Amino acid sequence: MGLKRPVVTLKDVAAEARVSRATAARALNSYGYVGDETALRVQEAAERLGYRGNRVAQALRRGQLPIIGFVLGDIQNPFFARIAHDLEGELRKRRHNLLIASSEEDTAQEKALFESLRGLSIRGFIVAPTSADDNAHLEETVREGVPVVLIDRAVKSLECDSVVVDNEGGARQAVDYLINSGHRRIGLLQDETRIFTSQERLAGYRNALEAHGIELENSLISVSPSTVEHAIEATIRLFSQRKPPTALFTVDSLMTQGALLALRSMGLSVPKDVSLIGFDDFNLATFTDPQITVVAQPIAEIGPLAAQMLIDRLSGKKDPPRNVRFPTRLIIRGSVSRRVEV
Amino acid sequence: MGLKRPVVTLKDVAAEARVSRATAARALNSYGYVGDETALRVQEAAERLGYRGNRVAQALRRGQLPIIGFVLGDIQNPFFARIAHDLEGELRKRRHNLLIASSEEDTAQEKALFESLRGLSIRGFIVAPTSADDNAHLEETVREGVPVVLIDRAVKSLECDSVVVDNEGGARQAVDYLINSGHRRIGLLQDETRIFTSQERLAGYRNALEAHGIELENSLISVSPSTVEHAIEATIRLFSQRKPPTALFTVDSLMTQGALLALRSMGLSVPKDVSLIGFDDFNLATFTDPQITVVAQPIAEIGPLAAQMLIDRLSGKKDPPRNVRFPTRLIIRGSVSRRVEV
DNA sequence: TTGAAAGCGCTAACAT
DNA sequence: ATGTTAGCGCTTTCAA
């Protein structure tokens, strides 16, 4: 695998340019006084030697690594992948790297991750916490003065910025729409209620039913991890009951896809046999026949805003925490049918 | 945002346990000789103070940060998202973090990324290089002795491990199947030929045509960045010609989805008007009606193998580079129709 | 305008 | 079994 060549340090550059390390540093980072000629000589020397500053040493000196941690539940969820993409772009402009770490929706793993990342002296965190309640690790991080921005999922007790959407409203609107289309037995496919969005979307579901005087039936609610495979199973369970729902509301796009696949495998057609609305839009939602009605989130705005909030904190902004909540939008397509009561 | 509390260092722990820093380090990292009693006292002190080793200082000392860089073109591509997920899991077991950095399929940006990440003294890289040719940055990284594992895309001149699939064979088999189904005007929707997989998949397309004595027509090849939006445009261009193709082969799942959407928007039905095969399987491929015929990759094996290769290198394995190429599999579903020559 | 020197937190060779 | 000390590469205060 080739010969290792020694790494060029500031000392080498300084020697090459025949100045002290201090002067070399000044010339390369353009601060303090340096003679024009000297500066040039140092820069040339650095160039010639292929000098590349050791960011670890700089970090040890300054106390922080120019890295932001993004802690999420699942990078395979297109929603988070999009956010990650946007965050990385914004941070790149600030010469920071993004370290994406997955909790796999496991609170213990999320805590371990924090333990490990905190030791890295990372500058700040953007987090979609796995649990709405169990957040000692986040509190400690905030208490130690490390900026945290919550994304997609808030934590009430935490004094930090957050960017979420109107989960309750979006879910309520969706279920409302199903009810107004004549449905009474409306299934809910959600992930664990430990998760903030799940709680709020459940609340929206519950509130919509209540507003129409429909009693909530636990047998119509199916809980599963948010993957296509698990959602398939959960959907099959839901629709294998003696009195299955006539409509289904799913809380994210992976689950919507799982539900679609499951219903098809059971020979149930959408929207003839089952009406469907999913939270979170997705690429193929308009390709399927019928097209899927969804609650869309303003996904393009979430990542950039969160990045900006974090950057503001990094540059010392001391305002009280901002908690932004974006509205959602019901996009009516063709997966809901009118149901005439029997 | 709360009071900053001072960070606990080894020195504090040592003082608390009334031992030297060396002893404290030994007790905490369990190496060298430490008295049982002393060790216990140190561990208790660390616990009490909430000591968390400074990984940056450790890295400066040891010369490396326990971080692996994953440089890819687009985290929003489900293929890469899956790989990232698997890599992270494997590396976590080795107490390493994964830093995902996106080149956005831009070679210049990829180079800048390397420049920046090399300065971080990252332990190794897993890379899906943007260009099959322009790889001075990779060569330099390898030359400096930093382990690199190529994934999805190889670079011939580079002395390092790689994990790819049989792109030429997979593409050839797909196009073969189209030809055997009676198609002669077969469109190709691919990303830029700078990209390794694109080159190989194009070769497969070309070879299949050639084997059947069909002349390649440039007007049937459409190049676009690999996003759903760009693929939609490119597909529309392809099928707006006076003599459009009767079949289409797309080189990845995002493009397949774009093609699907575009064809639908043009009122062309699959497979009646256009037959379709996509490289890379995807969740909804079996939901659409008809289900989409695809060339599937053994995606579950790629990430773990690459991770293992890198880990082996990190632990000093000196074998000559391994270049693994997985076979692909044509999964015949319903998006190809027999075409009777007119 | 430049240089000398201290020190960030940690590890490990060496000394005791 | 434990302590002393040097030094990883860099920045920055202080002195010249």
Automatic annotation (TrEMBL), chains A, B:
Keywords: DNA-binding, Transcription, Transcription regulation. Residues 8-62 form the HTH lacI-type domain. InterPro entries: HTH_LacI, LacI/GalR-like_sensor, Lambda_DNA-bd_dom_sf, Peripla_BP_I. One of its GO terms (molecular function) is DNA binding. This is LacI family DNA-binding transcriptional regulator. CDD domains: HTH_LacI (cd01392), PBP1_LacI_sugar_binding-like (cd06267). It comes from the Bacteria.
